[in-house]
């Protein structure tokens, strides 16, 4: 496993970028795992349930912002990312429903 280098331990921009690229790979892997759950949620919904209830959206955003703040990430950054994840999840459900119909029947 590759040794994690802290930002302060990186002497050059190239070293910083290498660490960013390493983290980006991990983010993609985690998002891919997350998407397998999104896919299963869609499969268990009826076509009329596409999207997220507003209460679910609010809870997801609140949780993301709270975790971000605790982790040292500006909450507005997390909120923007999560809003896009939610938008893409809804779009995914719409596309799946159009392509496959109601999988529950």
Describe this structure as you would to a colleague:
With 105 residues, the chain is an all-alpha fold. It has a domain at 51-98. Helices cover 72% and strands 0% of the residues. The protein contains 3 helices and no strands. Helix 1 (13-44) packs across helix 3 and helix 2 runs antiparallel to helix 3 (75-100). The protein is elongated, with a radius of gyration of 18 Å. The termini are far apart.
**N-end to C-end Cα span:** 46 Å
Rg on CA atoms, Å: 18 Å
Q: Which structural class is indicated by helix and strand composition?
A: mainly alpha
Helical proportion, percent range: over 70%
Largest sheet: none
Number of helices: 3
**Total count of strands:** 0
Morphology call:
elongated
Instruction: Tell me which oligomeric state these chains represent.
Output: single chain
Query: What is the arithmetic mean of pLDDT?
Result: 89
Describe the structure concisely for a colleague.
The chain is mainly α. It is 72% helix and 0% strand. It has helices at 13-44, 54-71, 75-100.
List key phrases describing it.
72% helix; mainly alpha; 105 residues; 3 helices
Topology:
Elements: H1 13-44, H2 54-71, H3 75-100
Helix pairs in contact: 1-3, 2-3
């Amino acid at each position: 496993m590759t040794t994690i280098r802290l930002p302060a331990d990186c002497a050059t921009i190239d070293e910083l970028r290498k660490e960013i690229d390493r983290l980006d790979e991990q983010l993609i892997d985690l998002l891919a795992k997350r998407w397998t759950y999104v896919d299963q949620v869609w499969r268990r919904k009826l076509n009329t349930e596409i999207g997220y209830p507003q209460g679910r959206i609010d809870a997801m955003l609140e949780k993301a912002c709270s975790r971000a703040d605790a982790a040292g990430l500006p909450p507005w950054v997390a909120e923007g990312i999560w809003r896009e994840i939610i938008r893409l999840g809804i779009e995914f459900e719409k596309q799946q429903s159009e392509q496959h119909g109601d999988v529950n029947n």
